[in-house]
Design goal:
heterodimer; A: about 120 residues; mainly beta; seven-stranded mixed beta sheet; four-stranded antiparallel beta sheet; globular; B: about 100 residues; about 0% helix; about 50% strand
């Protein structure tokens, strides 16, 4: 069964760091582009970052460029999002999603709360 | 950035109704517009890709149309499981989502 499962969310103080993980299964991971998308009541759904199948190309939304880094491990079928200099407005549910243009597989998300 | 404006933001409907949601883009998308359904507590689910392509496993009562800057999602006969929030998303230039359209009883 095609599936992605996020983990690593939690409560972090402003200025802190966090690593999110996404475990993929049920499909040939190395063939697919992967993304991180977040959702908050204030901003709605917001695409954050994309990584190509080989991991050689990464793209970021302006809101996270320079603070977040996407990476992948094709041997273990994982995608990661390293987040630093976190701010209160980074509080959201973070989703891992498969796809280049449309996102056809989503995880259930992991909650990140940034608060002192 | 490309802005997507959905209308209506919310609507009341009944089972069996025909429902239409519109997504207006701030510039032409060359067809790179996709639709998602999100039920409470769940992740978004892809319904329609590239304006009119029906995603595998999605019931045929869902359809998409449109071009350039105006796109439409239609549910031909609303079912109880269709009460949810619907989002459009563009992939022509980076990726952005609309603000959502809530379909409620």
């Amino acid at each position: 069964q095609v599936n992605v499962v996020e983990s690593g969310g939690g409560l972090v103080r402003p200025g802190g760091s966090l690593r999110l993980s996404c475990a993929a299964s049920g499909f040939t991971f190395i063939n697919y582009n992967m993304n991180w998308v977040r959702q908050s009541p204030e901003k709605g759904l917001e695409w954050l970052s994309h990584i190509s199948p080989s991991g050689s190309n990464m793209y970021y939304a302006d809101s996270v460029k320079g603070r977040f880094t996407i990476s992948r491990d094709n041997a273990r079928n994982f995608v990661y999002l390293d987040m630093s200099r976190l701010r209160a407005d980074d509080t959201a549910i973070y989703y891992c999603a498969r796809g280049l243009d449309a996102f056809d597989v989503w995880g259930r998300g992991t909650l990140v709360s940034v608060s002192s | 950035d490309i802005q997507l404006t959905q209308s209506p933001s919310s609507l009341s409907a009944s089972v069996g109704d025909r429902v239409t949601i519109t997504c207006q883009a701030s510039q032409s998308l060359n067809g790179h517009l996709h639709w998602y359904q999100q039920r409470p507590g769940e992740a978004p689910r892809l319904l329609i890709y590239e304006a009119s392509g029906l995603q595998r496993g999605v019931p045929s009562r869902f359809s998409g149309s449109g071009s350039a800057t105006k796109f439409t999602l239609t549910i031909s006969s609303l079912q109880p499981e269709d009460f949810a929030t619907y989002y459009c998303q563009q992939s022509y230039n980076s990726k952005t989502f609309g603000q959502g359209s809530r379909v409620e009883v």
